[in-house]
Design a protein that fits this description.
Layout lengths: L2 E2 L9 E3 L6 E3 L18 H5 L1 E7 L5 E6 L4 E5 L14 E6 L8 E6 L4 E6 L4 E5 L14 E6 L9 E6 L3 E6 L4 E5 L14 E6 L9 E6 L3 E6 L4 E5 L14 E6 L8 E6 L3 E6 L4 E5 L14 E7 L6 E5 L6 E6 L4 E7 L2 E8 L5 H7 L10 E2 L8 H8 L8 E5 L2 E5 L1 H7 L1 H10 L6 E5 L4 H13 L6 H13 L3 H13 L6 H10 L3 H13 L1 H4 L3 H4 L3 H13 L6
Parallel strand pairs: 29-31
Antiparallel strand pairs: 1-8, 2-3, 4-5, 4-28, 5-6, 6-7, 8-9, 9-10, 10-11, 12-13, 13-14, 14-15, 16-17, 17-18, 18-19, 20-21, 21-22, 22-23, 24-25, 25-26, 26-27, 29-30
Length: about 550
Amino acid sequence: MGLVYSPESSQEYLLVSKPHPLRLQRSVAMVDVSKWPLFKLLSTQELASIRQACIFGASANEAIYITHDDEVYVLGLNCSNCLGTGDSQSTIVPKKLDSLTGKKLVSLSYGSGPHVLLATQEGELYAWGHNGYSQLGNGTTNQGVSPILVTTNLQNKRVTEVACGSHHSLALTHEGEVFAWGYNNCGQVGSGSTANQPTPRKVSNCLQNKVMVSIACGQTSSMAVADNGEVYGWGYNGNGQLGLGNNGNQLTPCRLIALQGLCVLQIASGYAHSLALTDEGLLYAWGANTYGQLGTGNKSNQLSPVQVMTEKERIVEIAACHSTHTSAAKTQSGQVFMWGQCRGQPIVLPHLTHFSSTDDVFACFAMPSVMWRLLSMEHDDFLTVAQSLKKEFDNPETSDLKFSVDGKYIHVHKAVLKIRCEHFRSMFQSHWNEDMKEVIEIDQFSYPVYRSFLEFLYTDSVDLPPEDAIGLLDLATSYCENRLKKLCQHIIKRGITVENAFSLLSAAIRYDAEDLEEFCFKFCVNHLTEVTQTAAFWQIDGNMLKEFICRASHCGAFKN
């Protein structure tokens, strides 16, 4: 699997005409990284600083991210020194990799050890982590505790893409050459033998004089796509993952004859299965199928490519990862399908999801929930509808209506209020001229309460202290805003104290909030001695006080 950054902002795969007509670059994805649990450890400010990120590791317990300032940070378990921090300590606090500061990342991949490969915009190749099979390419088997520059046989070469299998590595150069090194028990290095390869070695044989444009790795297999759309595979083939029509290992690259006549744009390798996408949007799959990862409707392995999703519309993106048995695809209209091992379930046919990105499939259903590619949070200042609405609340430049509360103005938009609130919809339809600016005086509610109400219509959220939430609860009851009413009750419950408990109970009774009333009543009973000593208790209406004492008595609150 190679994780490649392209500056274009499309989610689809891009054909770049120079230097090769079919050079394929995987473009960036617009995905919320907080869907991966490890990123929940970061603050809002740290999340906002992320430009690119990747979750990796045997249990998806390691993360690397790059900021908008081109600083590289890591966090997580640090198995086999895969964080590159110079030590073997795990960390839940992001640590900066100073040696990579300022290096613009274009491709990243990881193995099962894990080991990590990283290619920069200048074509440099860095590696660190597990190195028991020389998969770092530095000629040793010593673990790489920090990023090292890999240069053997790559001098004057510009690396544009990297891919890692379980314990072997591939690199693709700007000239279309493929280099391989590391574990080679099944021929996955393509050298013609099964001896491990300690440093990068050019993969030749039938790749000689071919210009390769994309690479991918299964656990112990390797794949490459040529600029004319031909596909080549080598290494382990026990499940047919090379697509050659047999299950014999291949020590050197072999062309997939079964795909002859098709122009393949993208390949993706799972643990032991492979996917290919053609320039006509057709999807082919082959290899292991124990979990239904081929999407053929059964669990039988396929030694040769078979077309899947034939009844669906054009496919524009495929996804798989060498550490999972999960497959995903995205169609031209944006539909995302998943199949294979999905949270332990074998899904044997492509299943339509509610996701908008193949990355979400791996975040929510893959085991482990790693990222199948490098994610980018570059959004060119794009705001979602929800973000735009939030930004425009109380903006006098775009508003067409003002509320005056306690002598202060709140600027809003009639259209938003009409869409979001039945109260305003009825008001504007009955009384107001849409073409005129209006100032509406509000005197029955306080400024903080009414501002919070209007802001809720723009954001779906409320941020008020419990005492003000009582007033907002009154408003929500008056305007029949049931969701707002529930939010207010939630705020009040979280902010209840001995001092305000009886006041909150009174408000709950007054506004017919039964759930809140029960909650406040139980709190008062549980803290009866303290509550009865507060000013709020003795200022209560006589009938309400009598009702409370009677009800508390029935609960046994006054028994010795």
